[in-house]
Amino acid sequence: MGFFFEDYFPMLGWLDRLTRMRARLERNFSELDRFYQEVIDQHRDPAWRREEDRAEDAIDALLNIQKRGEANVTDEHIKGVLMNIFIAGSDTSSASIEWTMAELMRHPSVMRKAQNEVRSVVGKKGKVEESDLDRLQYLKCILKEVFRVHPTVPLLVPRETIQHCRVDGYDVPAKTRLLINTLAIGRDASIWKRPEEFDPERFVGSDIDFKGHDFELIPFGAGRRICPGMGVGILVVELALANLLYSFNWELPKGTTKADIDMNEAPGVTVHRKSHLYLVAK
């Protein structure tokens, strides 16, 4: 993460070279590009495929399309898909987990209810497994509330209008770039009661979900351009949080109270907390 002048003031993009942010970006890009190429080459190796004896994955599917020539799929396209999946399913996941733990520490009754649910469902197995997640309904309500109040990508992938249209009396010309503000939607008082209050109970018994069908809650977007890493991201967040709640009791460091938890946001496309969250696990 870091601040790029070019993101906000295109004319000042040359300053990014003076701050060495451009060099850092190019270095990270080169390292990731080499990694993605290694993964692609590995999937092309017949010996590796035989040894692994595994089911076909997304890379195999894309390589098969490339081989059959059904579409103009190049290695660069495959790398782009990999980048989308990994970033969408990892960077945002870590941010969501931290926001969730911060809110749970600020709301001890919600924390207790979530822990009671996880521990009653899992019992003495020792860890939460993927098969347990469908029964953790209150944990899902907590995540919906976190996605509403703290969407990790407040501005979705830009859209462009195909033709002229009118929205609420406003003329929107064709080829207009649109940014959808999910943070504003999630805190809109005309949609939500007590929008600034963190209250997972609002989703108990509610059919509202975040998978693109309910426009009140679209942290992953909707339609054909919905986040490709949604499934991976949700699984990672639910599994990580459930195990954190199952395995440990959480406390704030000595001398701090829930009022001391800083809920300010750091700048960036993916919104993390401005300050680190320090907790004591017991």
UniProtKB/TrEMBL annotation:
<dbReference type="InterPro" id="IPR002401">
    <property type="entry name" value="Cyt_P450_E_grp-I"/>
</dbReference>
<dbReference type="Pfam" id="PF00067">
    <property type="entry name" value="p450"/>
</dbReference>
<keyword id="KW-1133">Transmembrane helix</keyword>
<keyword id="KW-0349">Heme</keyword>
<dbReference type="GO" id="GO:0016020">
    <property type="term" value="C:membrane"/>
</dbReference>
<comment type="similarity">
    <text>Belongs to the cytochrome P450 family.</text>
</comment>
<feature type="binding site" description="axial binding residue">
    <location>
        <position position="227"/>
    </location>
    <ligand>
        <name>heme</name>
    </ligand>
</feature>
<dbReference type="InterPro" id="IPR036396">
    <property type="entry name" value="Cyt_P450_sf"/>
</dbReference>
<dbReference type="GO" id="GO:0016705">
    <property type="term" value="F:oxidoreductase activity, acting on paired donors, with incorporation or reduction of molecular oxygen"/>
</dbReference>
<dbReference type="InterPro" id="IPR017972">
    <property type="entry name" value="Cyt_P450_CS"/>
</dbReference>
<dbReference type="InterPro" id="IPR050193">
    <property type="entry name" value="Cytochrome_P450_71"/>
</dbReference>
<keyword id="KW-0812">Transmembrane</keyword>
<keyword id="KW-0479">Metal-binding</keyword>
<dbReference type="GO" id="GO:0005506">
    <property type="term" value="F:iron ion binding"/>
</dbReference>
<dbReference type="GO" id="GO:0004497">
    <property type="term" value="F:monooxygenase activity"/>
</dbReference>
<dbReference type="GO" id="GO:0020037">
    <property type="term" value="F:heme binding"/>
</dbReference>
<keyword id="KW-0560">Oxidoreductase</keyword>
<keyword id="KW-0503">Monooxygenase</keyword>
<dbReference type="InterPro" id="IPR001128">
    <property type="entry name" value="Cyt_P450"/>
</dbReference>
<keyword id="KW-0472">Membrane</keyword>
<keyword id="KW-0408">Iron</keyword>
<protein>
    <submittedName>
        <fullName>Cytochrome P450 71A9-like</fullName>
    </submittedName>
</protein>
